[in-house]
Write a structure and sequence with these properties.
The chain is α/β, with parallel strands linked by helices and about 180 residues long. It has one domain: 3-Layer(aba) Sandwich (Rossmann fold). The chain contains seven helices and five strands, in the order βαβαβααβααβα. About 30% of the residues are buried.
Length: about 180
Amino acid sequence: MIVLEGPDGSGKSMLGEHLSNILGREFWHPGGAVSDELVPEWMKKCEHKLEQGFILDRTTHISEFVYGPIINKREPVTFKDMTKFLKLCGEKNWKIVYCRPASVLDFNHTKSDYDTDEQIKAVEDNHQKIVAVYDELFCSPRSSFLEDQGCLFTFDYEQKGSFQQLLKFLEINGK
């Protein structure tokens, strides 16, 4: 199982399609953020897909943890809850690939998508918050247990040789 995580515009879908072709596995995207009531149902669906060995563009639990409180102004899932979920990923040997954008403003939007400069600024501010939460989750001492277990790889499109390193990571740790 491979879980691709990261902010919008970080290249998860492109990477997932490419890995799907190389590894001969199905690529699945669970969809966007869901309401609080639907999170448990989506979690079961995602975990079912995870058990089947899919390449998954986001697991809704992580996405809800990051996007829910910022975009939908909800209470965030606690780091304790998130750590519990990430430990489950480690125990089940699910590989997490964190796709980090080259910069916090490196995501797909154009001025024509929004009516005003204030809307553009609000979207950029939200995106910066989202990237900061992902970085805290995947690039901090809190996530070191995932790296120790060989479950986490940070993918950087800008870093020379990153794709070859990713393939080596997946090969060494099983497909």
